[in-house]
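Ticket #4471: structure output looks truncated?

Reporter: J.K.
Steps to reproduce: submitted the chain below (400 residues) through the standard prediction queue, then opened the result file.
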Amino acid sequence: MMLTHRWTIAIIFICSFLILGAAPVTQSQSIFGTPAVDYVFGEQATFTVPLTDHRSIQSLFLHLQPGDGDLEVIELPLPPAGQPGVYVHPLDVSPFPPFGTVKYQFRASLSDGSKVSSPEYSFEYSDNRFEWQMLENDQIQVFWQEGDTGFGQAALNAAAAGLDNALQILPVDIQDPIRVYIYPGTAALQSIPGTSMPDWAGGLASDQADAALLSVLPGAEQRLELERQAPHEIMHLVLRRAAPRNYANVPAWFAEGLASLAELYPNPEYERMLLTASQERTLIPLETLCSRFPSEEHNVYLAYAEAESFMRYIYRNHGSSGIARTLAAYENGLSCEAGVQTGLEISLEELESRWQSEMFGETSQASNAADTTAFGPYLALSLLVLLPPLIIPLSLRWKD
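Returned output as attached by the reporter:
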């Protein structure tokens, strides 16, 4: 028994030695010092890492992942002895997502064939061109540049009311605070590198940063603009948190309609535009608003008006549960039409027809066109029966 026990201990010791000896040596603490990142927003970011053993390093890499984007692997030139490894990233050519998290890590291949890596680091790519003021509650953080604390409190109040609206329409568990950044006017907001905004847009919900970017100047109109912009963009963020796996599949009319529905006050111009479009037979079919909104300014406002009114109709008739079921269908990859059919048990065309009937007292334009086509043969047959008795007396009168 004693001999067997000794052999068992010996075997365990030898196996442990072999396993530990075969494990790769990380040496992260002996090769890499503590890195540093310095950047000028919109221009360039400089990554620097001290190196303690230049002679053993054969190659040096930076693994870089901005926001939810693809991982970039960049090979760095080997520095002279005693100098750090340096990489300069051109933010004017390849911008990071504003206010998003940037992850990075240094790795190296050594002369003995082993590979070493530093710990993974991250930083928030904030707009450091400005000094930001901040107010917060348990669920929202508001940052602004111009204006006093009263302006910041008004922004926080508008954002909190907007979040309450959004959560009534689409209940979601808010774990991490929602961030709201307020720029002084649309020109300042549209100057952010890496953002793509049309001239008519006043705000932006950044998917990469999970933050709302607004453009509001302190002044007489500040409360109205805050109560319009903040709830709209916050609803986009709530919607993204409710469908994290496939947010990109959510139809444009669904997302923008919900965001407009969350605004504290309905836009009075929307109803006028809808009535005019209905009278002129220029309403935009909802099936054409699935993937994107029109680029023309007049049509895009009409698209927003239709989406808001249509989602208000869905909310009134199907409630939050109907919206949640439809959103779940879209997150599972169903098409624009199939999502409505699955979530609300009605086709998109029929739902649109019912909405127009309630809103304007008429059936949809598509249904009217279909009805005309369907009755075409009967109309032609009626003309064949009715026209001859009318034409013959006229012919006789002409002869007389």
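Triage note (M.O.): checked the attachment and the full token line is present. Residues 245-364 form one domain.
Status: closed, working as intended.
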